[in-house]
Amino acid sequence: MTGRPGRESESGPEEAGGPVESAGPGPGSGPGGVPAAIALTPILSARYRTQDLDAIRAAAPGARLVTIGFDGHPDGPLDDVEVMLRGRLPADTFDRILVRAPSLRWVHSATAGVERVLTPASRSRGLVITNARGVFSRPIAEYVLLMILAVARRLPSLLELQAERTWQPRESRELRDVTVGIVGLGSIGRAVGALATAFGCRVVATRRRPEAGHHATDGTEDEPFLGSMMLDRVLPPEHLPELLGESDFVVLAAPLTDDTRGLIGDAAIAQMKPGAWVINVARGELVDDRALIRALREGRLGGAVLDTFREEPLSASSPLYDLPNVILTPHTSWSSTRVVDRSVELFCENLRRYADGRPLLNVVDPNAGY
Hints:
Blueprint (H helix, E strand, L loop, with lengths): L13 E2 L2 E2 L17 E4 L9 H10 L4 E4 L13 E6 L4 H10 L5 E4 L10 H6 L2 E3 L6 H16 L2 H9 L15 E5 L3 H12 L3 E5 L8 E2 L12 E2 L2 E3 L4 H7 L2 E4 L13 H5 L6 E4 L8 H10 L4 E4 L19 E3 L10 H18 L14
Helix pairs in contact: 1-10, 4-6
């Protein structure tokens, strides 16, 4: 995929005067190749700020902005919308919008995961999809290291002792004695690897393309992360049992695809090192909840850190709340004061590329699912 949304042919959408043609080098039908109209759905957990809208207008001067609510209702017509900045809309709401936006060519997902964007309807339209790869890598990597440090230094136990007013020192582990296994070495996995190696951890990882290398430094590949990354090994997905058997912490940073759905189930848990912890900062569907709960109750795993779940918000009746060896957070590992800035900056850079006819950043391969 080139990442260049193409002009409509004469068999495509037409105006009264004939086929839509770009006024500039890019494929947009607005002035200078910009899109005629841009649809904006709510991104992350924030409203668009005045500076965000100003930045979008500056990146695509002359484009009409249409705001769409969580319910899918727009504040203006969608017939000439060519570009959409999509936040956390349900897939069925997204599909309803597609029906009303026949000129849509490119959708930018404000999330890294695109399983709710790669619907049958969007695939059949051949839309170009880009995502937010790299936007959340830094805060998520810091979250993962926070949890590894907390577990290694026995912080949950120490807090319990404090609440009980009990003076009972606990022995802890140094991170140089810890092996971190990263399942999925994309931008988040690489950021976790950079921080983990900086703290002295031994790191192994799986990725679809292990030949991509064991070493990277800030500013290489798709986006910068947190320094140098020196991995012990990078393995193909079929060697996941090898990673599971060695890791004290198994960090799930893989996209949700048909191949990864239910990846951590009974079989995978049986292959894990006794006392290992699972840290899920990817998608809840990567984990078989029943298998995980059984293993946690029976003591086959040391514990789990879960920031993402099959259904959100997590039901108050979930047995996960009652397990003493589980740390739950409400899908906030990505959160920081900077993520909205980075999200809008990435979208605006792609808007400029769109108008110039240049390849877009972070184009998703619909066959791979990321």
